[in-house]
Amino acid sequence: MGDILYSREGERFGIAATVPANTSLCISQRMMVFRIRKRQDSEFLMWQLNCQHVYLQASLYVIGSTAPHVNIDQIKNFQLALPPVDEQQAIV
What we know:
Layout: E1 4-7, E2 16-18, E3 31-34, H1 42-49, H2 52-60, H3 72-75, H4 85-91
Antiparallel strand pairs: 1-2, 1-3
């Protein structure tokens, strides 16, 4: 697996999705891309980014009323559980 897209702005902020293999994308400023290291499982990370505990972290830092968004610096500091990759794959 590869990259993960993450919506960081708008009424639907905080949604993650894996990018299918061999897909070329052009993303907007409302999105960000997580480049996943080989020692991590991208599907596991995608599901974790979609978990309530991560969404609540994002909600703490939402700014703006007409176009709510979370700054990239805040997203970089989300607390994630990262067990060894074999455990991540077993969980997925």
